[in-house]
Amino acid sequence: MPALTDIKTYATFIYAFLMLVYWSGTFVILYHLIRFGIGNQPKKIAVVFLSGSLILSIITTLFFAQVIFTQ
Amino acid sequence: MFNFLKNTSYTFEGKKDEESVVLFLHRHWYVLTGKITTILIMSLVPILLLIVFGQLILSNNLIPLFTFLWASYIMALWYYLFYVLTMYTLDYWIVTNERIVNNIQRGFFNRSIAELSIHMIQDVSVKLVGMIPTMLNFGSVEVQTAAEEGHFKLQDVPKPQSVKDKVMEIIEETESELGPRMHGMTQRHHFHPDKYVIQRISEETKNKLPETDTTSDVEMGENNNEGFFDNKSIDTVSDEGLDKETQLKRQIEWQEQNRINEDNTGNNAPSKSNFVPPNLPL
Lengths: 71, 282
Fold this sequence. Notes:
heterodimer, B: alpha+beta, four-stranded antiparallel β-sheet, three-stranded antiparallel β-sheet, 8 helices
């Protein structure tokens, strides 16, 4: 049976990888909105999306840390 | 710093300097309601799970894990919501004083752009089908072009009647600037109707005239008098199967040729009937 610290390390790597995937997707959306959007509406959507993604990423990371440190 | 969020004039890739944007259209917001409602319902799933399995989560001290999974789930929904909004935002029509541009976004890396020149528009029609589109006043505007199968569809646009009126207004303005159109073309296309008709008649005549009839009696002239029966190709051709225009044209040619022949007959060459060989006793 693997040690608990090993499981935590793997989980952290998996979480980091998933966050990387999420932020790559975020970049693609932001790029499309800013590059191909016409008028100011796409830019507003991009700002809201970026702000929400940042806040949600911080909240999720905090909850992940709580799981890792309390278990 | 946030100047880009203020109202700006619409501009797009490939816009000409003298071109001005008249309408910028998206689909009606109603087309989004289905997807947004689904996202809202899906965001309530964790609450439902908490109600059903709340006791189990509390007793096993799984609250941190549950909240982490909940936040991750909301993050994924947030992403999907903005994916839908991005596709909606990038699916648009631009009506300028010169053309209609349709940008279709079917995915991140699936984008197609079509455009139609205002000069090519023949007619514009509006379609509102169903109770909700009628109540919310959205529908499709179909723009018919001069091409056989060419039509441009602005689907689910708000206030389609005003869109149609605006497009017609632009066409009228263009016509007053460039002159009346003919079969979807303006004077800019250098179309000359007279030239076209003349060319068409000559092509028809060329196609319908049979080759010279070699068995014709006029060619069997006993006196071998060349030049006397020069109009044989016209005499031997039948008028059957030709239209009135061509027949009239041929008749004029035939009369002209006869007049020339009559002159020739009077001066130099004798006709077949009154030909008398010289130096022979009568």
